Mitochondrial transcription termination factor 1 (Phocoena sinus), 406 residues
Amino acid sequence: MQSSLSLRQMSIPKGLGYLTIMAPRNLLYMRSNFLFGSRCWMIRFSAEVLLKSVSFRLFSMKCDNADSEPLESEELLNNLLTMGVDVDMAKKRQPGVFNRRGTNEQNLKTFLLSKGASKEVIASIISRYPRAMTRTPESLSYRWDLWRRIVTSDLEIVAILERSPESFFRSSNNLNLEKNIEFLYSVGLTHKCLCRLLTSAPRTFSNSLELNKQMVEFLREVCLSLGHNDPTGFVRKIIFKNPFILIQSTKRVKTNIEFLQSAFNLNNEQLLVLIHGPGAKILDLSNDCMRRNYTNIKERLFSLGCTTEEIRKFVLSCPDVIFLGEKKFSDKIDCLIEEKISISQIIENPRILDSSISTLKSRIKELVNAGYNLSTSNISLLSWSQKRYNAKLKKLNTGQNVVLGN
DNA sequence: GGCACCGGGCTCTGCCATAGGT
DNA sequence: ACCTATGGCAGAGCCCGGTGCC
């Protein structure tokens, strides 16, 4: 009888309450709350109308330091429109930003321009994450420097911000970021690995230190409960193989590990090998998705005459296949079967499902044209690298020409 | 040289919910 | 009441090449 992992008994610490170091609001915002608090909405409304209609020019004569003076919302809107920001999108995403007094959009623009971001990228960043313009220049600059300790150039950071503005701007807690960097190094991750984490899963660095610690601790507990004696190496390996692991919840990862153990009836050692080996990549799949995709693979292969053991072996030899959604998996299988490739050929060469449908189709067509008999020959070349495949195809075609020439 | 085996490189945001501060 | 900071979720592949055996 196999010993079972008592994951269910392992505690997942609930968030201990995030470290809240709020960005200090500017004085005028506080003053305006005092003067124009909710109980005085009528006064506020009247005052705003008065300010807009009578002393707009006076009110909007702000000095260079945007922190010390408010931006009248009309001016904010004008600024944003001039910058090319999609104001409707921004308002829909974070309406609160537009109600506050004192935003730093001009400073943000100047800052990002100095780092090499284009005007279009800046507009896109603000459109998608308007809270970015509430950050102070000092805070931005320090955060940027901390990121630069990990990546080598400003342009790399710009590329990340363009992809995911939220990762950089969601928090202004730079102390937490510093502690995260320190913590990740202390786990034994190399500089290269941190760089990969930052480019692949930048959210990791905006997580609270506590949240990252929870995941690392959870993985260490899994390792120890499975009887492995090097939890540090284990954690390092999983994070290296799956840089997204730290932006998943422990609940999701725990559920997936339990699923893999029960679905494949693995003992502790087999499970250990799977999750810090080929299975590391699929630990961050949503629980439903993993269950759904695996059930689909099982049902489809079963209907094609595969045995349970064959299916088990097939998936374990290439767990990435669980990434494939129902349609994609079926389309790939159909496309291969249509070309008289047998299901036994497919399950013996699971890596061919790595290739995209278009690659499979074009290669099948080229190979058939070259006289290659897919149902009797090796099909692994369907998943070779382009370079190797081209060389092979060239030889096949040359060989055919020689035969025809004879 | 030809191929099997295998590991690794890229890559993953944008939205919602909610606790807690002002 | 409103805003901010943070946690958590859904969604879902493809490609390259080193190494070693024959």
